[in-house]
Specification:
about 140 residues, mainly alpha, two-stranded antiparallel ribbon, about 45% helix, elongated
């Protein structure tokens, strides 16, 4: 017998679920990897507001997933540039500080074991003379 909600007058209303139908998570419905239900629960417990719409945690999960993917992609590129296969805090630091928008977003964030971005003021570098540059081009 199919399970359905009863309206009190003897009529059957609501969706009828077949027995072989599986429930799908909100993350799967939205096509996301981040947990929509967990974010919704955290928003409710954080007392952000009295009422939270059903679309808010989906949107927030999508934004968090995008930011994570962006940072991990740049950090992976930094790791590959350093001939490493594993991302460490140094690669995260280089990825964030070399990207203008991420650096602005995470400007006040301190990454432990991240180090600093290498920078030497051009005034401190030895000046190249024209004679040296011409000598280096001759074979």
């Amino acid at each position: 017998m199919p399970s359905a909600k009863s309206s009190g007058k003897g009529k059957v209303s609501g969706k009828v679920k077949s027995e072989d139908a599986k429930s799908t998570s909100r993350s799967t419905r939205a096509g996301l990897q981040f947990p929509v239900s967990r974010i919704h629960r955290m928003l409710r417990r954080a007392n952000v507001s009295k009422r939270i719409g059903s679309g808010a945690p989906v949107y927030l999960a999508a934004v968090l997933e995008y930011l994570s993917a962006e940072i991990l992609e740049l950090a992976g590129n930094a790791a590959r540039d350093n001939k490493k296969r594993r991302i460490n805090p140094r690669h995260l630091q280089l990825a964030i500080r070399n990207d203008e928008e991420l650096s602005k977003l995470l400007g006040d964030v301190i990454i432990s074991e991240g180090g600093v971005v290498p920078y030497i003021n051009p005034a401190l570098l030895p000046a190249k003379s024209k004679k040296q540059s011409l000598d280096s081009q001759e074979v």
